[in-house]
UniProtKB/TrEMBL annotation:
Pfam families: GerE (PF00196), Response_reg (PF00072). Signal peptide: none annotated. It comes from Fibrella rubiginis. GO terms for molecular function: DNA binding. GO terms for biological process: phosphorelay signal transduction system; regulation of DNA-templated transcription. The modification 4-aspartylphosphate is found at residue 55. SUPFAM superfamilies: C-terminal effector domain of the bipartite response regulators, CheY-like. InterPro entries: CheY-like_superfamily (IPR011006), NreC/VraR/RcsB-like_REC (IPR058245), Sig_transdc_resp-reg_C-effctor (IPR016032), Sig_transdc_resp-reg_receiver (IPR001789), Tscrpt_reg_LuxR_C (IPR000792), WalR-like (IPR039420). Residues 4-120 form the Response regulatory domain. Residues 139-204 form the HTH luxR-type domain. This is Response regulator transcription factor.
Amino acid sequence: MQIKLLIVDDNQMFAEGIWTLLEDTTDYEVLEVLHSGQDVLEFLDHTPADVLLFDIDLPDSSGFEITRLVRRQHPGTQVLAISAQDDRLTIEQMLQAGALGYCLKSDGRDELFSAIQTVASGKPYLPAAYLAMRQKQKAQAAASPLSGREVDVVRLISEGMTISQISEKLAITERAVETLRKSIYKKVGPQSNIELARFVQKYHPL
């Protein structure tokens, strides 16, 4: 069965280039190429698509908001974000908005096809560089002696928050914050806010 695709990208040359690539196979049916995020929901209202191949950097709309709306109103359509942005924050914000996959514009033809097939089957697809970074972060966190809640407290202490402010931020008692602080200092030693910030960046980067 062919995968029905809706392509949305304001760069006409790039969008039509993808369309041409996909037309060379029998696995895909490109329903339409749109150049405005504002047209996406209206199109899907009358023409269902399996995968929305969606440039999140459209000038007329928020990629995050369009993704949330598509997933809410058309849950049968999976969103595969495509972007030149390879930073962790953008990728994770798109995933939180409901995208099942994220593909970089710098990736090659085979990566794009693999991403489409993976997302169409209901499985997540993420850039190899992002997965490698997440694996490195997990390894760094495993080397840390702190618990998850202690990391939260260390992060806030390093930002200069008081015990009272941390208590309010984390919705725990000041006594609990103090207990956690003592445990942290027992494990890593009393350190300045700058040193704590370096510790967090090394073992628990955001």
